[in-house]
Amino acid sequence: MVKVKKGTGKKRIKRANAAIERIEDDALAAEAEVRALGRKAEQAKDSELYFTDKQPTGKEELRTKLYKDEKGKLRGQKVRRSEAALIPNDNIKAIPDEKQFKASKPLKDGIPNADQKIVKKSIAKETWTQKRKRKPSQSRNRYDVWSVPEEDADVGNWWKLPVKKKNLPLDDEGASGRQTRDQVAPAGASINPSFHDHQDLLGEAVSQVVRREHERDWVREKLYVGETEHDEATTSEHVTETKPDEAEDGPAPSKTAPEKKTRTERNREMRRKHSEQESELRKAKRKLRGDIERIEEIEKEIDESARPDADKVKKMRREVVRRRIAGRKVPDREIIVPLTEELGKDLRRTKVKGNLVRDKFVSLQRRGFAIPVRKRTGQFK
Questions:
Q1: pLDDT greater at residue 52 or residue 20
Q2: pTM of the full predicted structure?
Q3: Secondary structure, 3-state, 353-378
Q4: CB–CB of 154/362 below 8 Å?
């Protein structure tokens, strides 16, 4: 390559050199591609030339990649519940059975267990029918204690009553060994309380009313609340309005008339009052200076003294509450008790055929715990 000092020639030579260098570079690049790929880049596929970098660059991307990898592993290791129940777990230990299985009972007279109940029922039915067919002389020594006529629907026709199905005892030994149940009062039975219980209930109701009145007065006094319309209505009956008596000639002269003083005495009193006011002002200023110096201590004292007052105000404004139901405050319910004149007659007195023993027997009979015998016509010897 020849170098020329002139401008135009220099430019031409420079362009020619650049074109030659470009051709040489392309040839070298083609040789490198053939060495790497075995063929030219124009003939190769894009997948052979380029690839996407899937590696995460930031912390968030790396965290999501790790999370997805862990999730994929868990999906591959997922086991069904039915299969997991069969897999033995080392953490769960078997609990030894304390109660051993009972051996099957031997057959009685070659009869299986399922048929034994049927045989027992048939035998019990036969014995029961035989006892029903007995004559009065052959029956047991029982007699009717309550002397109830047969026309009575409750006791005379006891077999028609709805009785619970139970295995009724055939002998007296089974009935005597059975424990008696607690008697349940039938629906509709109104038994008045005793005299002392009724008096206690009346006293409790009166004390509740008096306590509420005292609480209302105490709260009104503490909160400086005036009298309401309800209070005025209640107190109007007991309090009588007092009006000043005016005489015919005019108002009566007051008994305490002002004393007559001279001018010197009045001036002396004025000077004494003025001096007392000045001394009080001086004391107040002196106290104010001292209070300013210890203002933090005064603030603490005010806060401590205001706490109990605030609690008292809250308690006074709040209703008297004894319990909570489902998060709601429920006050005490009022005691409703009838007066002595309003009490009705006792059910036991109005019931002609009523008797405590008979009522007990009827309740046992309806529940299937008592087996009465029909009223016999014969006489005892």
A1: 20
A2: 0.21
A3: CCCHHHHHHHHHHHHCCCCCCCCCCC
A4: yes
